[in-house]
């Protein structure tokens, strides 16, 4: 049929020779009933007789493929089977039975059968949906029990010729409600929430490690934490358990994970007389090299129950195993608040400084304007006090005879020797002039006003 190094007589046959493993493999595609029979795998030896291995090939008529499905007692499974696109209009059905080597009538008992297309059809514990666009049909099987384990067929009724089948081998695990997978991180922890039937709220709940065996065995699951307590946290080593009787779920936290903690666990309800019910938990613990570190907090509260409506799990990882580190979101929020407060303080300080400078500048401007509008200004020399004579609108001449518009009053000598009193007329331009008899006082002074520069003649103090 086929020989290494030569083309096959039938293109459906192919051969690969693995010289390292010293095995060769023959593949046959598009099997037909006529392919059934006895075959030989042979090794040609030049000097001696060839070596042969006898192969008996049996072909099951109508079977497209074979699949294995695992279900859990009380749960359900969904099975999807493909068929040839030429049979979209044919009836589809799901039956129970082992396809015999030789055809037999009634060897497969129908469980659900329908001509309906692209819509769900229900019958007891079974539902069937024929998706003609994808050329597949799906069967759901609910409320499983241990007796449902066995061989089933997804079939297409082809009327004249033999029906086509997809063989389904179903295995039902007793006591198991569901199965979940959880990933944890070394040094961190996981939180696992498992549901149970509402009729068992008063029963003992526990968490154990072990693989549910096909046949019942005593002590196959080692208890890690077990309690009768309701609606409160119970602690035992690295484990905590909270039984929420209102939601009919219980939550287990598993802290300080290690790589060797990877394995199969069970959330279980002790049902005393009958087999306990289980939720299978497959835990995989990764090391620090597998994922980057993060920090979070998970410390069960003795009063607050976890919220969940179905079996689920959550994963947390910490840099230490005491779960006291602050959540990253809280640290980010605190940093933002501190930054805003600092910015606000800086703005307040800048505003106060600007206000101070503005007030100071305004005060100086007021002083300057008052000085320019006044009638006289005190000029101090060391030990000498004068009042500068101001020109409000007119420039004073150095000689009174130059300007006939200037009016001066008579000067009378006061009773004291140190003062001369001048009394002015209505638009008098001069005020009192005080003379001090000190040798170091200057005999002249100069004044610069806001408009121009005026120089006045010397004022002499004549003694009588």
UniProtKB/TrEMBL annotation:
UniProt-listed InterPro entries: CD300_family_receptors (IPR050671), Ig-like_dom (IPR007110), Ig-like_dom_sf (IPR036179), Ig-like_fold (IPR013783), Ig_sub (IPR003599), Ig_V-set (IPR013106)
Transmembrane residue ranges: 334-358
Annotated Low complexity bias: 294-324
Domain named Ig-like: residues: 74-174, 187-284
SUPFAM superfamilies found in the cross-reference section: Immunoglobulin
Record-level Gene Ontology MF annotations: transmembrane signaling receptor activity
Annotated spans, Disordered: 292-324
GO cellular component: plasma membrane
Keywords: Membrane, Transmembrane, Transmembrane helix
Keyword Membrane: yes
Compartment(s): Membrane
Keyword Cell membrane attributed: no
Gene3D superfamilies: Immunoglobulins
Pfam families for this protein: V-set
PANTHER family recorded: CMRF35-LIKE MOLECULE 3-RELATED, POLYMERIC-IMMUNOGLOBULIN RECEPTOR
Protein name: Ig-like domain-containing protein
Source organism of the structure: Onychostoma macrolepis
